[in-house]
């Protein structure tokens, strides 16, 4: 019998449509309860890895891979003020998982959570201490004599400082992702600490560091309607389990900031923001000038056209500042996090980065394993044989 709502719809079709709507509403109700109660939290940072080095709060992780097919290893430096698990949210939506599955031997330097013991950490401590030491440890553990290096956001800035100050480090290529260079284009994030506005010491708490709530509020000021949009999208997709997982993990990360070591924050404001040191070639660390022109390895700069944290105008000038002859820029229609997380990243950003790295890598005839350091000498031998 035809439906009164649609004369061309059969009773069977009407029943099926009603059943689907009932099931959809049941899923929405179930997932709504999960959101409201925090039930069934999603584990993050779950890609199997080994801690191969620690110093103070820093850790160097090596992700387990039984199918390493490319040499040299990839060393990732993440930001100093955010949790690194954004690069390893969950299975199927993990930057490092994609890199690992592409046959790369992946290391990641995580700076941990700063406390009062780190309040006096300077940019020199990172550029001359933690990063070079961690890179040399990655070389030792892997048995390699070179590294491909990738810096994400402020981790890209620290990587730039490190490689410019230490040309002796054996780096085959450098990739930066959403890395601020022209700090006059960073908007409210930096305007607040320009001369005549707030002094950075007004933001530092009793631990000697910039506390997480200050950093969290700074990000919220950049996009004050973000929470409204986030929950509107959640309401529209509440029946989707996969969307719920993505929403929960992203919400957790955006609320999960960490302290910014006080002395490093002072230097960042003075050298990067007030002097716009990268653009003006006016950065001094340890009493010596730092010139990005000293970086000459193959270089890829990845920027996001819809990045509200590091606008494209702030990140794009970097390609003209490094001294590399072999250099390229990748511009994507994505946001700050969308460069490494989500479907667009899996389809565009990550494959492009992998292609860049593979072109600057040697392919191993026989895949090797990184478990417990196994395969390190085999990888080195295979590389030497292919040379």
List the main descriptive attributes of the protein structure presented here.
alpha/beta, globular, 41% helix, Rossmann fold, 12 strands, disordered C terminus, two-stranded antiparallel ribbon, 387 residues, 17% strand, single chain, eight-stranded mixed β-sheet
- Helices and strands, in order, run as HEEEEHEHEHEHHHHHHEEEHHEHEH
CATH topology: Rossmann fold
- The tally of strands reads 12
**Mean of residue pLDDT values:** 84
What does this structure look like?
- Helices cover 41% and strands 17% of the residues.
- With 387 residues, the chain is of the alpha/beta class.
- Helix 4 links the parallel strand 6 and strand 7 (171-177).
- The protein has helices spanning 11-37, 95-101, 123-142, 154-165, 188-191, 212-222, 226-236, 241-254, 262-274, 277-280, 312-315, 318-321, 343-359, 376-386, and strands spanning 49-55, 58-63, 68-71, 74-77, 106-110, 147-152, 171-177, 283-285, 288-290, 299-304, 327-332, 362-368.
- The strands form 3 sheets. The chain has an 8-stranded mixed β-sheet with strand order 1-2-5-4-6-7-10-11, sandwiched between helices.
- The chain has a single domain, classed as Alpha/Beta hydrolase fold, catalytic domain (Rossmann fold, 3-Layer(aba) Sandwich).
List the helices and strands and how they pair.
Blueprint: H1 11-37, E1 49-55, E2 58-63, E3 68-71, E4 74-77, H2 95-101, E5 106-110, H3 123-142, E6 147-152, H4 154-165, E7 171-177, H5 188-191, H6 212-222, H7 226-236, H8 241-254, H9 262-274, H10 277-280, E8 283-285, E9 288-290, E10 299-304, H11 312-315, H12 318-321, E11 327-332, H13 343-359, E12 362-368, H14 376-386
Parallel strand pairs: 4-5, 4-6, 6-7, 7-10, 10-11
Antiparallel strand pairs: 1-2, 2-5, 3-12, 8-9
Helix pairs in contact: 3-4
